[in-house]
Design goal:
This protein has about 375 residues and is of the alpha/beta class. Helices cover about 40% and strands about 10% of the residues.
């Protein structure tokens, strides 16, 4: 073998060192929240411009009254028949203004729910007073009661304690809803990841919570998610003549088995799917079986001010067998995953889109 000269050896060593340095060169730091991978998958994409059947959006927020005309135009584009606004607040009698403005644009297309003023929980006869206001709201055209998540989670009375969902001071309001024949849209707790652990590398909603750390309800200062859900369930058991709609898939889309048990146990319990297709769509086999089995108890909702493109993501999810698509345009980014379509049968679609809501609202003229 020919012996290498010292110069040749030095050249080869320099080349090896330079190559190794290039290979070892770091790519730079990338924050998880900035990572936006583009899928290389090539799969079918179905555009569903309008739903198979007219839609009743049972869960929405139309609080910007100046946009009522725009909302109606978006509903027309997307095939939405009726949209429910949940912001008819009791405080300062805002429900009266909400009803006046919304119904001046369309009394048939906008439906408003009344929401009690829980800041007055310490006042004598709180429940009776708010129940009377609820009755007045229904007389003016309100068609439901909305309960926001602060009840049971952050709302405190003058003792400094969190007011539980099943606090007896609220009983007259639940009873009045049953007497009037109107449903209660009840939102208690948030996604499991907001309650179950800190904002760290194990939290599947890290992106959201990093951006909005005040959305985390983890820690000893908050009641547990399970405790609040049990409070709600006790209310439903105590008021069997009142219809309750559990917002966001009964506030537990991560555990459809438990939601199924509640639907079996409480005949006055319904659920909506609003803002949770990101959860349902990552478990398509389980979600499809669940929605077919409980097809008479599930309602359509979005939680997103009327927007044609947002509605179309829901239609694609419910009607097609498309795979691995982004649910973000339907609401906002909720998790770092894609979803799959459920390809539900027409009979099921029609019930979810409108028939189940019509059954609940059948008492009132104009919705039959």
């Amino acid at each position: 073998m020919k012996k290498l000269s010292p110069v040749r050896i030095m050249f080869l060593l320099s080349f090896l060192f330079a190559t190794t340095a290039m290979i070892a060169q770091p790519l730079g730091e990338l924050r998880l929240v900035d990572w936006e991978p583009k899928s290389m998958l090539v799969v079918k994409e179905t555009k569903v411009m309008k739903p198979r059947f007219p839609v009743i959006d049972i869960h929405n927020h139309l609080r910007n009254l100046d946009n009522a005309e725009h909302y109606l135009q978006q509903m027309d584009e997307a095939g939405v028949w009726i949209c429910v606004g949940l912001d008819g607040h009791s405080r300062n009698d805002f429900y009266k203004e909400h009803l006046r403005v919304s119904h001046s644009v369309s009394e048939d297309r906008f439906m408003i729910f009344f929401s009690p003023d829980f800041s007055r929980i310490n006042e004598p006869n709180f429940g009776e007073t708010e129940a009377a206001k609820l009755e007045d709201a229904v007389r003016l055209g309100a068609r439901g009661l909305k309960i926001f998540k602060n009840l049971g989670l952050t709302l405190k009375d003058n003792t400094g304690e969190v007011v539980p969902v099943d606090d007896p001071r609220v009983d007259p309001i639940w009873a009045k809803a049953g007497e009037l024949g109107i449903p209660v849209m009840i939102h208690v707790t948030d996604p499991k990841a907001f309650h179950a652990g800190p904002i760290d590398r194990y939290n599947e909603r890290y992106d959201e919570l990093h951006e909005h750390p005040n959305w985390s309800f983890y820690g000893p200062e908050f009641p547990s998610k399970d405790e609040i859900l049990e409070q709600r369930n006790r209310v439903m058991a105590r008021h069997p003549n009142t219809i309750f709609i559990g917002a966001h898939v009964g506030n537990l889309p991560e555990e459809l088995g438990r939601v199924a048990m509640w639907l079996d146990k409480y005949p006055n319990f319904y659920i909506d799917i609003n803002a949770r297709i990101s959860e349902l769509g990552r478990q398509p086999y389980t979600a499809r079986r669940f929605m077919i089995q409980y097809q008479d108890r599930i309602l359509f909702g979005t939680d997103t001010p009327p927007d044609a493109e947002a509605y179309r993501v829901y239609y694609r999810f419910l009607e097609t067998d498309d795979e691995y698509f982004d649910p973000t345009p339907a609401h906002k980014q909720q998790g770092r995953w894609m979803i799959y379509g459920l390809y539900l049968p027409d009979e099921v679609l029609e019930k979810i889109y409108n028939k189940n809501a019509l059954k609940i609202f059948s008492k009132f003229n104009g919705v039959d």
